Amino acid sequence: MNPICIVDDQPYICSTISNVLKDEGYRAIAFPDAESFWQSLDTLEPSLVMLDIWLPGVDGLELLKRLQGRFPALPIIMMSGHAGIETAVAAIKAGACDFMEKPLHLDVLLDKVKSAIKHRPRRSDLTLPPDPELEIVSADLLMPPGMVEVVDSPEPQRTLRENVVLNGVGLLSGRKTGIILSPLRVGEGIVFQTLDGQTIRGHITSLENFSKTLSSKTFSANSTTLDNGRQQVRTVEHLMAIFSMYGITNVLIKVDDEVPNIDGSGKDFCDLIEQAGVEEQHAFTKVAVIRQKIGVGDDERHEKHLYAEPFAGFEIVMRVDYPSPIGEQIFTFNPEKDSFAKEIAPARSFNTFENIEMAQRLGKVGSGYLNSHIIMYEGKVINTELRYPDEFVRHKILDLIGDLYLLGFSIRGRITANMTSHGYNQALVERLYQAIQSSSRFRQ
Fold first, then answer.
1. What is the model's pLDDT at position 3?
2. Which residues are tagged catalytic?
3. Which residues make Cβ contacts (< 8 Å) with residue 76, sequence separation at least 6?
């Protein structure tokens, strides 16, 4: 077999990869820069090139383009320890068959090498919904009384025992940001406070497009944004999910304009609550009981839909069906049977290179880093190892739990979801809210 060529200006990287490949029976040759490697191609034809993006002189992206012109079928794996999403997108678009972040995990490296040499990945028809900025949902908001009823619960109200801080990067802004969580007294609710002192309730009525009258309207499809008319707080869904599952009813969240994203999951928020501790308060909560089926969308297998129905407890049944590497995934989560912290919170956001690139061009997301999402290209995950085989459907449940908590109450009922995003989640919560309002007016 022709040799595998490693082009990297770090001698340690070159020697490590070379030794690992040789131990596996491959021939490996290392080069410290693009020029020496290019000159060798007069007498050498590689079977695979492992190419660092940041090289002295001619950089890796420029060399990639030259190699594509000279050896169109040559598989090339790009490597970098400092690349953002846009750099990885450019590499894949320019013809790289794969991308790896440093520090390299050697077992992953060997899998990628074996796959690249065996066959060059073909383009798939992976087309996740592009999660446009707005999603149109039609739903009659004039609800008859009795569909959802708020009743007393034996569960106490809860807050935090102490202040805690978490820093990260805003997924949409790309800027460094953070949050401070602080205890609040009984009945004060979930309150976001921006740096200029503006307060925004963590409630459905704070959605930036909330309306009580329109039956067909637009909702944010790719995240949840709260707004008081003067300021907004974005990407609140993962934090709200953690509040819901820990039963936090009263808490102050000091934030800039975006809740920080760590790795695209809710795991770090769980750790933050564990660090702060939860304190039960001397007052009880209320629960929204689903009395009749209520939902949005067409209740067909191949159509988006989301509905709530009576159930003795709380349960979510979520289904997704996307092309490879996702496929059909169905997951049922019941907090009385399953551990939220272990089974749902660590599941990360996911998207395709194409969607991320489009969003960046439109200025809807910041540059971010490769660890902010599970990223897919040509029918495979390219930047990480999955935490669960069905991590995708689990993350959809995480998002849904956070959006449902905007109702202001925990829910007693079963939620069934099919292929839905934040737009449908928010539309269902608005319907539930209107049903509660209708029942309240009827009792008066």
1. 92
2. 422
3. 48, 49, 50, 51, 64, 67, 68, 95, 96, 97
Model pLDDT for residues 79-116, shown as the tens digit of each residue: 887 656 667 777 877 888 888 888 888 878 888 898 88
The DSSP bridge partners found for residue 314 are 413
- The count of structural domains within the chain is 2
Q: Which two tokens stand for residue 424?
A: 């449908």
Instruction: Give dist(CA 428, CA 415) in Å, integer.
Output: 10
We report the CATH number of the domain holding residue 207 as: 3.30.1700.10
Helix (H) or strand (E) holding 271: helix 267-276
Answer yes or no: do 176 and 143 share one domain: yes
Please report the pLDDT score of residue 68 as a whole number. Answer: 86
Q: With contact defined as beta carbons under 8 Å apart, do 134 and 219 qualify?
A: yes
**Shared domain check, 151 and 10:** no
Cα–Cα distance for residue pair 421/395, rounded to 1 Å: 11
The kind and range of the H/E element at 282 are strand 278-290
- For residue 66, give both structure tokens: 């030259």
The percent of residues above 90 in pLDDT, for the chain, comes to 55
pLDDT in tens, 253-285: 999 889 998 889 999 999 999 999 999 999 999
| Domain co-membership, 89 together with 141 | no
CATH at 28: 3.40.50.2300
- In this structure, what token pair is assigned to residue 170? 């805003």
Judgement on whether residues 139 and 90 belong to the same structural domain of the protein: no
Identify the pLDDT of residue 371. 63
251 and 276 Cβ atoms separated by less than 8 Å: no
* Domain range for 206: 134-443
Q: Which long-range contacts (CB under 8 A, 24 or more apart) does 29-33 make?
A: 29/3, 29/4, 29/5, 30/5, 30/6, 31/5, 31/6, 31/7, 32/7, 32/8, 33/7, 33/9, 33/57, 33/58
CB 399 within 8 A of CB 241: yes
